[in-house]
Sequence to fold (506 residues):
Amino acid sequence: MLHAALSLPGAPAVMGVVETAHAIAAGAVRASDVAAAALARIDAFEGDLHAFLHVDRTGALAAAERVDADRRAGLPLGPLAGVPVHIKDMIAVAGMPLTAGSKMLAGWTPPLDATVVARLRAAGAVLIGKTNQDEFAMGSSNENSAFGPSRNPWDRTRVAGGSSGGAAAATAAGLGCGGLGTDTGGSVRQPAALCGVVGFKPTWGRVSRAGVVAFASSLDQVGTLTRSVADAAALYTAIAGSDPLDATSDPRPVADCAADLTEAKDLRGVRLGVPIEYLDAADGLDAGVRQRIEEALATLAQRGADVRRVSLPHVRFGIAAYYLVCTAEASANLQRYDGVRFGHRAALAPGATLDSLYATSRGEGFGPEVKRRILLGTFALSAGFHDAYYRKACQVRRLVHDDFARALRDCDALVGPTSPVCAWPLGAHAHDPLAMYLMDIFTVSANLAGLPALSVPAAPHPASALPVGLQFVGRAFDEASLLRVAHAFEAARGPCAWPAPAARSE
Fold:
């Protein structure tokens, strides 16, 4: 295993996705024992990490028992049979609460599974619970969750990243084999980088969004968080593909990336572009992060890759364009949460007006960051400002897309840092929205361009020993090649060892 989960005396270890699936299929371990081990680790760590918003202990053990019964009966098992997986709370799981990290949806339980969840069940996965997140996926630190932030497993005083911070923390701590998150501007990759795991965002349209709470529909994508690239390929292969319930899902066939992944010994013939805007001319890039990324680039070159500098001249406008597009779409998508059609309904005195019901329900249900983004998006779409802001942002988005298209004509993938810094202390940027938005500076452009992107642990930071993430961005709908390159780097890098905190904090 290239990345070991957090160790704890008395808490059994949980293997990765592929290793667990093979062990259960071979009869080397029972699915019920694997589920029990994952639940034992949740009991041991959850009090410190707050990675979960709901744990389905009874359902997980029952599903694992069914896998064991099928194996005893000689029935065929799915490729993920018995693998315990957690699900970000933006994604509907029938019978489990769905809050999207918000008081607006507190107490609601969806009657149906999201398509990605149905596909995990069909593959035999055991669903162990729902992970914490920033409210409606709006945030980069998990501190915007209405139910309190998740904490970084390697330093409990620091953020886990966002918005899929709970999923990243749970994966790093071995609270299951891996999980699903959503990525609108880096919400899978950035927390993966901060927690030292693998975060994979497929091409927009490659994975169904049916049953996923909408934030910014032209940017949202379901992704995976795992402890290895092979595990990412296994989960992705299980959930990807066209879906009649999602009109934006792409009909192109999906390669079996899990089977296609090879233990590449070198990268000869692979051309990797390093955007100068992400490394040489990047503002705010921590010196230690830069050092580890340069070392990772040297490792790739040693393995035979042709590593060259490229330019993405319009990505410097990426943050500005992204935060106009995503807030405008959020303003439209979150209109439905008004206390009448959906969401929290305020208790008002008899005779209250409809306007006061809307205002009070939304005021009570939404947190500060969600309100900020709704206001920004509504302003950007308003009469007199639409062309100056939203339309201009869409034009810039096209320029960013074209920059990537040109670079990827001459390169097989682009590579650079995932996050400009390592995990920062809880509360450090809580009252500085702009500083928080800039944490996504290297991730948002892949969403604007709709491209697949993946963060892999590079090495411990030279000063803090906290994880540093290396990001790969590939061609649209060529997830297989992107995963192969990342897998080869992972093999060349070898095991990563992060700092080992005390088992429990007081």
